[in-house]
């Protein structure tokens, strides 16, 4: 190890700081920030890194913030981003102004007409959101969801395609139990007017972190597709929500199955619970000592 | 340092190498503390003479060279390097042979190495290492894993030889596994835990027997712990985020 390490440039330190912040598990970025500040010992570099990293983190984790003025919650997502720190909540047609580093909503203003979809699109968006809220309310004890129009929001009537995206974000923080977790679903719904079909593409991502005297993390992802007929706003909404519910329930079941398989099947490829003999290793066996050399040679073990 | 260790506990275990080198560059003056307290997945070299692979760690390293437990030679060659005494080397050779068989039984392959050296207290220290690649392209017999690694480091401090000798074991297991299929996407678990176990055992049973049994017991406990407690907690968390449908409360009629 060189004794005289060249001092890192501020820019290099900032990039490293950003890396730590961005890789914080869901809900733990403030704890990482605290430790990072201590390690960096340089508030200017930290502040710059935080101002760059927090927005990216917040959007990718789709954090949920309370809006002032009793408007409920807003999800910070790239779909709802109007400007650097302004996020639309389609449900209430309000725009939340957000402080990314502090992870709070500082102000709320009504959305302008240009920021909202046309009444035609809004009918679909709103109907779907209502169904999604029902579903999320039932299925996720602490989940939030929003439905945005991300393409074709100015479509005035039938004859044109538009695209909606429904996002679900749920997070659980239990720092006193050393456990955190997050679930994110992003469902793109392409409303294809010409073929009268709604095409769904879902991306599900689940994470969990347990860190009592250790550090174990789950990272699971899944993609799926489906489609249904383009109908009236209410019927489409019901059909879409029911497909989403079906796929997500199936995914949860397959996660469970993966966990069930772990101890006996999956883990075995790493380390068996017991040797094939089903007994503990015979360390006592004195003849084993000279035998092992023979076995090792014969079986070519250790190559 | 405490903050640095806090960061290591939160960063994804798969990225522990990147995290450690980031910390080393931010805290160059704490490098020896960091290197001794943070475990990284094990690296492997091939012995020049036999072609057999051996595991690299702080305990067989001198400067930038590593001593092979098979040939007892440093790679690359080094002048004036430390070696265990010939008596200890005998024990080391036997330990390597037996441990290889043990690993074959539990790990269905894998790479193992044992290093020993005298310590200042008239006892000695032994380090048993295992590295297993369980992916389907590696040595995973059942083909479940897209990616899977198990790295175990067991360091045993053996007290001076008396009728009952004291053995202090510190074990670290690092593992990561990923399954990937069309119907359920990618499922990835990774993590590390470290535990200690101290025992006083009759030296008449033999050092290898005593150490071997401790390691076997510890590995079993760690495997169970990882599976049931650690992975189990992540599973519990998933079910808390989105309970399985059977558990959902009945929908109350709209009032």
UniProtKB/TrEMBL annotation, chain A:
Gene3D superfamilies: F-actin capping protein, alpha subunit, F-actin capping protein, beta subunit. F-actin-capping proteins bind in a Ca(2+)-independent manner to the fast growing ends of actin filaments (barbed end) thereby blocking the exchange of subunits at these ends. Unlike other capping proteins (such as gelsolin and severin), these proteins do not sever actin filaments. Belongs to the F-actin-capping protein alpha subunit family. The gene is LOC121209342. Keywords: Actin capping, Actin-binding. This is F-actin-capping protein subunit alpha. PROSITE patterns: F_ACTIN_CAPPING_A_1, F_ACTIN_CAPPING_A_2. Heterodimer of an alpha and a beta subunit. It comes from the Eukaryota. InterPro entries: CapZ_alpha, CapZ_alpha/beta, CapZ_alpha/beta_2, CapZ_alpha_1, F-actin_cap_asu_CS. PANTHER family: F-ACTIN-CAPPING PROTEIN SUBUNIT ALPHA.
UniProtKB/TrEMBL annotation, chain B:
GO terms for molecular function: actin filament binding. The keyword Cytoplasm applies. InterPro entries: CapZ_alpha/beta, CapZ_alpha/beta_2, CAPZB, CAPZB_N, F-actin_capping_bsu_CS. Keywords: Acetylation, Actin capping, Actin-binding, Cytoplasm, Cytoskeleton. PROSITE patterns: F_ACTIN_CAPPING_BETA. F-actin-capping proteins bind in a Ca(2+)-independent manner to the fast growing ends of actin filaments (barbed end) thereby blocking the exchange of subunits at these ends. Unlike other capping proteins (such as gelsolin and severin), these proteins do not sever actin filaments. This is F-actin-capping protein subunit beta. It comes from Gossypium gossypioides (Mexican cotton).
């Amino acid at each position: 190890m060189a004794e005289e390490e060249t001092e890192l440039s501020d820019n290099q330190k900032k990039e490293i700081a950003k890396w730590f912040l961005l890789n914080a598990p869901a809900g733990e970025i403030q704890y990482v920030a605290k430790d990072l500040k201590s390690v960096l010992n340089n508030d200017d570099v930290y502040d710059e890194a935080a101002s760059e990293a927090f927005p990216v983190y917040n959007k990718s984790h789709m954090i949920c913030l309370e809006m002032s003025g009793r408007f409920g919650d807003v999800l910070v997502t790239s779909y709802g981003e109007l400007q650097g720190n302004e996020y639309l909540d389609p449900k209430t047609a309000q725009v939340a102004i957000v402080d990314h580093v502090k992870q709070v909503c500082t102000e709320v203003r009504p959305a302008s007409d240009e920021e909202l979809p046309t009444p035609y699109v809004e009918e679909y968006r709103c109907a779907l959101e209502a169904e999604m809220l029902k579903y999320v309310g039932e299925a996720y004890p602490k989940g939030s969801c929003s439905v945005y129009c991300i393409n074709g929001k100015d479509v005035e009537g039938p004859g044109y395609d538009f695209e909606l995206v429904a996002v679900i974000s749920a997070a659980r923080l239990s720092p006193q139990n050393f456990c955190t977790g997050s679930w994110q679903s992003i469902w793109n719904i392409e409303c294809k007017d010409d073929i009268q079909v709604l095409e769904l593409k879902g991306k599900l991502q689940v994470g969990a972190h347990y860190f009592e005297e250790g550090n174990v993390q789950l990272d699971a992802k899944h993609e799926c597709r489906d489609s249904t007929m383009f109908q009236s706003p209410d019927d489409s909404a019901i059909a879409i929500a029911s497909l989403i519910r079906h796929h997500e329930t199936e995914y949860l079941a397959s996660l469970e199955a993966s966990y069930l398989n772990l101890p006996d099947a999956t883990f075995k490829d790493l380390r068996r619970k017991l040797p094939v003999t089903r007994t503990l290793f015979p360390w006592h066996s004195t003849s084993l000592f000279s035998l092992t050399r023979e076995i090792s040679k014969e079986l070519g073990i250790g190559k | 340092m405490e903050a640095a260790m806090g960061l290591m506990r939160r960063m994804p275990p798969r990225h522990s190498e990147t995290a450690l080198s980031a910390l080393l560059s931010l805290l160059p003056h704490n490098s020896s503390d960091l290197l001794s307290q943070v475990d990284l997945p094990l690296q492997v070299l091939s012995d020049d003479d036999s072609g057999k692979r051996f595991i690299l760690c702080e305990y067989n390293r001198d400067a930038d060279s590593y001593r092979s437990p098979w040939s007892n030679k440093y790679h690359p060659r080094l002048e004036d390097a430390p070696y265990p005494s010939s008596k200890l080397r005998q024990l080391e050779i036997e330990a390597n042979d037996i441990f290889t068989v043990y690993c074959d039984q539990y790990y269905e392959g894998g790479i193992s190495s044992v290093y020993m050296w005298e310590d200042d207290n008239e006892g000695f220290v032994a380090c048993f290492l295992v590295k297993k690649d369980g992916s389907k392209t590696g040595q995973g017999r059942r083909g479940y894993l897209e990616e899977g690694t198990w790295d175990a480091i067991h360091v045993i401090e053996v007290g001076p030889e008396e009728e009952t000798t004291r053995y202090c074991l510190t074990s670290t297991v690092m593992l990561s596994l990923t399954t990937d299929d069309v119907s359920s996407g990618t499922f990835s678990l990774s993590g590390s835990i470290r535990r200690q176990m101290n025992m006083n055992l009759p030296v008449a049973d033999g050092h290898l027997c005593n150490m071997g049994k401790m390691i076997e017991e510890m590995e079993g406990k760690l495997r169970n712990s990882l599976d049931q407690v650690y992975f189990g907690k992540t599973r519990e968390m998933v079910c808390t985020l989105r309970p399985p449908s059977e558990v959902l409360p009945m929908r109350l009629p709209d009032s």
